[in-house]
Amino acid sequence: MAGFRRSVSSLSALATFEAAARLLGFTRAAEELGVTQAAVSRQIKLLEAELNTALFVRGHRKVELTPAGVVLAKALTGAFDQVSEALDAIRKPAQANTVTVGATLAFMHFWLLPRLPAFRAAHPEVQLRLVSQDHGFDLRRDPVDVLISYGRPPFDGGRCLASLPDRVFPVAAPALANLHKPLESLPLIGCEWLEPSWLGWRRWAQMAGLSAFPKATALRFSQYSDAIYAAVGGEGVALGWEALVASHLADGRLVRLGDALVVPEETHSLLVPTTRTQGRGARILTEWLVGAFARAQA
């Protein structure tokens, strides 16, 4: 260990670099580590100064690894994975039936939380820990027993048990829809997605075959739930993932605009880690979620 500490003085700087390299962004790394973007940038600069070499190429709103950064990132990923596996092997769970569930903020808010009372009523013995975040999960490293992820296979470290396809189309409050104006003349509500597979207005319009787009959004939000509630309030038109806004459509708070829609190749996928054995609580929950996915498509 003494020899390792002579090679680099700060373990914290290595952990910060590993997060920034894996997520390819200082802001995302800051969110994962629970620190400020400035703190991440400072740690990286200190590490680069100590190594006397650049680890990132800084660009406008994005960073890329230098060749030296690629070498260090590959070494750290392997080392951290080994440490994580060792910790998983020796860690004793606080409660045998506690299940940690991960999902995006939008899926947790609009789809999972409204259905949880039914699960808890049927299985009161299963304790749940819910983790929602938009910068993604790593099933090889994160302590998540069940993950609902939006994307396409293969999923690193995860086995897919069920998928929920979705359709995307414009939605708005009834008062705005009743104006009967062309979509391109209405104010658009945008969302700043961290995950590139989620559609923005420009890509949605291209996939839907619309030529009148793109246009500037009237409002932009960092969270999809805020964008939807702005649409409910009549502030503009949002892109609605049908699985997420189904209850708003059913009770009339939102209505679909026009016939244009896109069916993404990505789906909401129910995943479990491939490297860990499911406990009883996780098996109960995943079986219930498989059924809930099937009912949502019926």
Task: Write up what this structure looks like.
The protein is α/β, with parallel strands linked by helices and 298 residues long. It has helices spanning 2-7, 11-23, 26-33, 37-51, 67-90, 105-122, 174-177, 201-208, 224-232, 242-250, 280-297; strands at 56-59, 62-65, 98-103, 127-132, 146-151, 158-164, 168-172, 189-191, 219-221, 238-241, 255-256, 267-273. It has a five-stranded mixed β-sheet with strand order 4-3-5-12-6. α2 packs across α3 and α2 (11-23) crosses α5 (67-90). The N and C termini lie far apart (58 Å).
Short description:
The chain has 298 residues and is α/β, with parallel strands linked by helices. The chain folds into three domains: 2-90, Winged helix-like DNA-binding domain superfamily/Winged helix DNA-binding domain (Arc Repressor Mutant, subunit A, Orthogonal Bundle); 98-160 and 267-297, 3-Layer(aba) Sandwich (D-Maltodextrin-Binding Protein, domain 2); 168-256, Periplasmic binding protein-like II (D-Maltodextrin-Binding Protein, domain 2, 3-Layer(aba) Sandwich). The protein is 44% helix and 19% strand.
SSE order, one letter for each helix or strand: HHHHEEHEHEEEEHEHEHEHEEH
Order of the strands making up the biggest sheet: 4-3-5-12-6
Average pLDDT confidence is 88
The end-to-end distance, rounded to whole angstroms, is 58 Å
- Stated plainly, the CATH topology of the largest domain is called D-Maltodextrin-Binding Protein, domain 2
- Helical content band: 40-55%
The CATH class label of the largest domain is Alpha Beta
How many helix segments? 11
Rg of Cα set = 22 Å
Number of domains: 3
CATH architecture classification of the largest domain: 3-Layer(aba) Sandwich
- Please mark out the parts with pLDDT under 50 across 5 or more consecutive residues, or reply none: none
| Number of DSSP E strands | 12
Based on CA inertia axes, which overall geometry fits? globular
Strand % is 15-25%
